[in-house]
Amino acid sequence: MTAETRYATSPTSVLRWTTDETRKELLIEKLFIADDAVLVYSHYDRFITGGIMPVNKTVKLLAPDQLKATYFLERRELGIINVGAPGQVKVDGEIFEVGFKEALYIGRGKQEVLFSSNDCEQPAKFYLNSTPAHQTYPTRLVTKKEAEIVTLGSMETANHRTINKLLVASVLPTCQLQMGMTELKPGSIWNTIPAHTHDRRMEVYFYFEVPDGQSVCHFWGQPQETRHIWMQNEQAVISPPWSIHSGAGTSNYTFIWGMAGENLDYSDMDVCAVPDLR
Fold first, then answer.
1. Which positions are annotated as binding Zn(2+) (predicted)?
2. Which CB contacts under 8 angstroms, 24+ apart, belong to 94-97?
3. Residue 265: per-residue pLDDT
4. Most buried pick, 12, 113, 116, 150, via CB within 10 A?
């Protein structure tokens, strides 16, 4: 297991960051390593972002030292979305078959979580988000058919997209974790436009299905002090509560959003008008 810690920062301190400092603090460049678990512990809402790619063996989710816990879910809940080939997640002996773009929620208190691929030649890629939990909710698999689906934007504004709300309050109960997946239509490149902030919760974006040779420019920062990070396929970026989180790609792509904080209302956001961005 590889685990690292990222610290919280203020809006004023980031104004002095170089490109390298920005990438070091916010960008998660590599999440999938064969037969390993990669975890990043953020001090924003104690949010953990991770990736597990089992190839030749089953990978057990262990508690990193940052948690000071006997097992990973001792005081936490966990959301998983598979962005690879089909695989299995075994939760305290119960097996869940998780296909491409399917999600699994695991509640607090489950002691053993094991990950495996159905075919080592085509491994599963389990993308993870985890947050502290105050009570236990049932473990549940959520497919795209069970998601709350919303279509927004238009081809004229290059932001025609489908939002799949997978692990959200309108689909199943969670303590504070929310996860979903936004798929941009061919010809559209913009996500989360108009941009917004929400001081009640932080967010992490994970970009995937970015074609070879293409990239996504992720925008962050206060609405009047925006910055950008160039991102590649299967990379994630941490967004502070005071920051916008938006992006434009050189092609269409898909991204997973994960949120944590004190408000489970998906529509709770402070919208920033496009002409007001700086």
1. 196, 198, 203, 245
2. 94/139, 96/139, 96/141, 97/141
3. 82
4. 113
Tally the domains of the chain: 1
| 218 annotated to bind ligand | no
Check the annotation: does 228 bind a ligand: no
Region class of 187: left (phi > 0), else alpha (psi between -120 and 50), else beta: left
- Reduced to 3 states (helix: H, G, I; strand: E, B; else coil), residue 72 is helix
State if pTM tops 0.90.
Answer: yes
| Whether pLDDT at 236 is above 90 | yes
Which residue segment(s) compose the domain that 243 sits in? 2-276
DSSP at 85 = S
Whole-number Å distance between alpha carbons of 50 and 199: 23
Residue 203 assigned ligand-binding role: yes
For residue 252, the Cα-to-chain-centroid distance in whole angstroms is 18
Please give the angle made by the CA atoms of 165, 259 and 252, to the nearest 5 degrees: 60
Residue 196 marked in a binding site: yes
